[in-house]
């Protein structure tokens, strides 16, 4: 992801330039995978080397329209740090700024309203260990009850309390929330959780699911590290998806 923006803006560091390009690519990957939701939902990324600064999508643009240069740079209080003409969705800022402010390891945060994610978040019991991907998340998912659209800062205390030490949350009746120390790590979490939800929805339509015993889940989670490839969690996965996007549209680099 080292290629520079085609039209670099003055004053942008190399680190910010790379972060912008990585995040823009991620929005296009999400769209390619069918995870867009009109002009809503958010992926945010901290700006390296700048405390309290992060990038978010311009409110009003579809994921397929996001580019490296039109991402909006804001501070932890929602103030714009660039000359972007676009507004920022209050719901995105309220939730994401809270986690970026309080969780040093939440470098990238992703929130979506996918059909499968919303469906599983809306049933009693949430995600169950009934498939390969779901077993990877057993004991690692937090839950937060629906309180309406997330625009009130006072909900933040409950979000943080319910998240605890986990970095994956199903917002009940609402959707998916994942965090990562890097964007590729967060991407892999989201992709895996989405797959787990899709398979659970499909399984539920066929009959009574078979739940995997706790002792097998523990072995499964222990052995997952043996099948990871070098480069960091999700790095190769995300790079492969970006190559697929590039085959049809490279405008996200602008």
Automatic annotation (TrEMBL):
Q: What Pfam families does the record tag this protein with?
A: Aldolase_II
Q: Coiled coil: which residue ranges?
A: none
InterPro entries of this UniProt entry? Aldolase-II_Adducin_sf, Aldolase_II/adducin_N, Aldolase_II/adducin_N_sf
Extract the SMART domains matched here.
Aldolase_II
Record domain Class II aldolase/adducin N-terminal: where: 21-201
Spell out the family assignment given in the record's similarity comment: Belongs to the aldolase class II family.
NCBIfam families referenced in this protein's UniProt entry, alphabetically: PRK07044.1
Record protein name field? Ribulose-5-phosphate 4-epimerase/fuculose-1-phosphate aldolase
Q: Which organism is it from?
A: Sphingomonas japonica
